[in-house]
Request: fold
Amino acid sequence: MIEGISLGNVMIDCDDEDRLCSFYERLLGWERGVRFGRPSLTSESGLVLLFVQEEDYAPPVWPELDGHQQKQMHFDFQVPDVPRAVELAIQLGARLAAAQFGGGAESFVTMIDPAGHPFCLCAASNKA
Reply:
């Protein structure tokens, strides 16, 4: 177990981050803001949804069909010590993602879990 780990954000990939954020803002009534330069919603309990626009976004098909985009999501976990959390995640069977787009090994690292799903380990103090 990674001491002090908590779920930081739930990121939702989409084709228009402002439009999707506005939809959920109206649906949920959560507080709108910006985190990591992206539109966000925060619940009263502190759960954060982040909306990330992807140029090549393909919406999932439901129910799922072979050969079509399946539903997907990834987690950002806030941790007190990113390098230490990365080390433990690797020991538990994760691997570093080939592409890294975060703020560096001390603040934001993308990992791949044993089933191939991406997740990020982010410095707990990285709120902007």
User: Anything to note?
Assistant: Residues 17-28 form the longest helix (12 residues). Residues 24 and 107 are 28 Å apart (CA to CA). The domain at 6-123 is CATH 3.10.180.10 (2,3-Dihydroxybiphenyl 1,2-Dioxygenase; domain 1). The mean pLDDT is 88.
